[in-house]
Amino acid sequence: MPKEGLKKVLITGASGLLGANIIKNLPENWQTVGVVNKHKINPPNERASIIEYNLLEEDVSRLFKECGPFNAVIHTAALTNVDQCEEDKDLAYKLNVKLTEEIVFNCAVNNIFLLHISTDHIFDGKDGNYDEDSEPAPINYYAETKLLAEEKVKIGGAKYAIIRTNFFGYNVQNKNDLAGWIVKSLRGKMPVRLFKDVFFSPILVDYLIDFIVEIVEEKKEGLFNIAAGDSCSKYDFGMKLAEALDLDKSLISSISVEESGLKVKRPKNMTLDTAKAKKIFKNKIPLIDESIEKYKELDKIYNQN
After folding, report:
1. Nearest to 114 by CA among 143, 155, 78, 153
2. In CATH, what number is assigned to the domain containing residue 43?
3. Which of 90, 134, 247, 290 is the most buried (most CB within 10 A)?
4. Domain that holds residue 60
């Protein structure tokens, strides 16, 4: 049972960039159960517990029975490596679609609010500035599975919210997202090549969490784009990051995605329209420069050199 006065929240993918940061930045009235599989993490505070549970092989219903009851579930677990999804479609389907279906079912039968994390990757990238009513058109298997997962959430019978997003931030694991890779490379005096023709609307994970908390606290239902209020190319993002952290921008060069030799096709323009979120949420949608400025502050705290 949740401790008196606390909201009990289950977080899948608790060792990932988003899941771990949610647990680290818990609201004072939240008690969380974070589920990890291969990557162990230590609970950052007394209101967080971490359990090892293979969601693909063990009974998901048992997890809900033994660790609940929950007020909400935040489902962040997914196979996000685009190339791996293409190479191992069976695993991608099991983790991104089948697991989501089981999570939705258990939320529905237990009357638990579900917040599902989706992606800007579900569009073909021909137009950009996609809003919540834009027609998805996946161009790789990762995107296909994430879109299928959204459909499972919508028809599963649980009260839900879906967030489409693209985020960056500091990772508890010893691995880097795009921002972390750029910073680590530049600090190591390594050259960085970034796409000049791939556009996105990245938001710092800390700001994204503010919206996640608001959705869970108020049980705001629906589909929401939570991303930056503006957009840029991957190359411009790297230049902004280098400028903010006083790193050598001359190490960054631009490249077209067409000449990159990537095995799996990616959308060129994944920018999201956040007009709906600006109207609905109390929290303010940040601009990319604001997210990077906050990232700079966090960099001093984490002291990642």
Report:
1. 153
2. 3.40.50.720
3. 247
4. 7-175+202-229+270-287
